[in-house]
Input
Amino acid sequence: MADGYRGLFGAFPYAFGSTDSRLFKSYVLVGGVAAAALSLFVLLALVVLIGQTASIQGGSLTLSRAFYIVVGLFVVTPVLAPVLLVARRHRRELAAGAGARYDQLLAVAGYLFLASLFVGLVISVPAEFQTPPTGFFAPVVSVLYGLPPLAGLLPPFVAGLLILAVHRVLGR
Output
């Protein structure tokens, strides 16, 4: 591990092996699976879009295809960020002192980002696809359904800023 990790895919085993936090180790596993699944969803959505619009000429279609990629980056990057930041910190041997706390709080921020993606999706469900909420979380889901769909962008944005804030505050 002393020689570094060599890129994105090597950062996952490096971060997993270099941290002492079990919470962060769990995030490395969950975040890796989530990032792979989200990347696959974005890639499949892009393939479907290209398939549906392959015979149509025009510049606006190129813009919409690029928009899928940009949205994918805005969703996947915050999922990967805690793992990459911890791997970088341990590789540079900056983990002395607040290392375990840094790792744990980045894991919490990463899990909160994953939860915020779900909350954002619930908010943005179109009215014709909303089912009557039942169970323990029914009041919360009802409130989320009542919000305008564009508000679904806010929870992931705030959670992404939280990851950045944890890194800025504890990364010194």
User: Anything to note?
Assistant: The chain has one domain: 8-170. Residues 20 and 94 are 14 Å apart (CA to CA). The chain has a mean pLDDT of 88. Helices lie at 8-18, 22-53, 59-91, 99-123, 138-146, 154-170.
